[in-house]
Write a structure and sequence with these properties.
Blueprint: E1 8-14, H1 21-29, E2 36-42, H2 49-59, E3 63-67, H3 74-79
Length: 81
C-alpha cells in the first residue's frame, strides 16, 4: 500500500438525509484518528443532501461523494463499491 492511501475507508450511504447528514459527517470528521477516507454514496436524494455533501467534499480531501442517477435501493446502495 502506498503512503497516499488512507489506512481505512468509512462508507456512509444516504438518501434524503439533509436533516442529519451534517451531524453525521461532523461526527466522523471530529475523530482524533485522521488517516481515513469518507465515501458518501447518495441514493438519488431529492432534498439538499447532495448540496451539503458536495460542500463538505470541497473543503476536505478525505471525503468522496458519489450520487446515483436513480434510486437503486437501500441494500445495493450500502454495498456499492
Amino acid at each position: 500500500m502506498s503512503n497516499n492511501q488512507p489506512r481505512f475507508s468509512i462508507g456512509l450511504p444516504v438518501y434524503n438525509g439533509e436533516k442529519f447528514i451534517k451531524e453525521a459527517i461532523d461526527s466522523i470528521l471530529a475523530q482524533t484518528f485522521e488517516d481515513f477516507e469518507l465515501i458518501i454514496s447518495d441514493n438519488a436524494s431529492t432534498d439538499k443532501t447532495g448540496e451539503i455533501c458536495r460542500a463538505y467534499a470541497a473543503k476536505d480531501q478525505r471525503i468522496r461523494y458519489y450520487r446515483n442517477e436513480k434510486n437503486i435501493g437501500c441494500t445495493v446502495n450500502a454495498c456499492r463499491k
